[in-house]
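User: Show me sequence and structure for the first protein, then do the same for the second.

Assistant: Starting with the first protein.
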Amino acid sequence: MKKLKSITKLVLLISITGLFLAACSSDDAPAPPQPSRIISKISIYKTTNTTAHFTDMQFDYDNSNRLTRIYSNLPLTTVNYAYTNTSKVSYSYATESTPLIEASASLKNGRCTMCTFSNMEDDATYSYYENGCLKSNSNNGVQMDYTWSNNNLRDITTTPRGTYNSQYTTSTVPNDYSFDLNTLAQLIDDRTNYTIVMNTYGQMAGILGNRSANIVQDTYYQYDYSFYQDGRLKDLSLKGPEETYTFKITYTDTE
């Protein structure tokens, strides 16, 4: 009888020890890797009466996940970035039909306060709200004022003429990827000098203050989204009055 009790105690001790070791093993197990938010490629399609491939954009980064190069094949476009120090960023871009444009941005607290463009006589200047969001942009003779709501851009008002006025609604889609996805609508905008006045490539590099927390929807377009099973954005479509652009997103772990 005493022998049976001893065996029972031994079995219980082994069981408890096993449970303890299993718990420790579970606690020490590494967390599964999170899906990458680093975008490596965007394929753009344009739909009018039929859908056609418009262009591919490829993105390179440094070890700090800062953009170093953007390459687009149609039209042939290359953007190169250089990060000299914490107070200076320079970038250059050209297409097959336009000359090289060089930009040099002076930074304060990581935000551009002045930018010199090689094709403009006057420097572009920028001011910010206390929360780090862009407040104004004086560029190429145009004054642009930005209004925000709950950390999302609500509208842009320009003087004179209102050429670049825009209004936005806020989506529920987080804007937490390797660059500001709100720049995609700027890349297809056909208003004269739009990407220069907006400093789109500077915004993609993250030097124009805090980005909108969510994707904001330009009221000129109707927006549609699709997602991967893990919740990351897969496709973004912008439907205008006459044409629709669809951006198909590839990440570094979905190539």
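Switching to the second protein now.
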Amino acid sequence: MSPEDFKKDISIHSVEVLAAIADVMRLVNEGRTSGAAWDLASDRQDEAIRRWRSAIDNVQIPAAVGARRD
């Protein structure tokens, strides 16, 4: 994956994480921390974070040319 593709991928995941967190926080502020809407929002947040973590964890960084190897 090129650095540009990585940045694009992470940006997409970051936007979804922020949107999912905003939905959860909106429900918290409304005092709606149970029920169907809460379940959907918290599942969305969990999935968004899982996808973001997966994208971060699966990055392949090529070894730099001439880099020291211990």
